[in-house]
Amino acid sequence: MILGELVNRTGISTRMAKYILDHAIVPDTINKVAAARGEPREFDELTALKIALAAKLLDAGVKRKLVVKLIQQLNTKLKGRKNETPFE
Fold first, then answer.
1. Which of 11, 58, 59, 84 is the most buried if burial means most Cβ atoms within 10 Å?
2. Averaged pLDDT of the chain
3. Which letter does DSSP use for residue 79 in this model?
4. CB-count exposure of residue 21 (10 Å: 0-12, 13-18, 19+)
5. 3-state SS of the chain: helix, strand, coil percent to 5?
């Protein structure tokens, strides 16, 4: 899933998604980074779900440090799973 699709499917803002990526709130987010500037970032569906969850939590007023901890705990729970959860 590319960043634009993530934004369209979740209703989060592009700015918020980029904030999450730039501040590494969701670690190990990018599966493919194109060499050329302007190419879209790609994510698997579990990573996209974590980005959307982090965005919703931040929008709800949860502090960034707590969001980072929650995403880390989620990563621990989902460790070893690759795209088993559909993005719905």
1. 58
2. 82
3. T
4. middle
5. 55, 5, 45
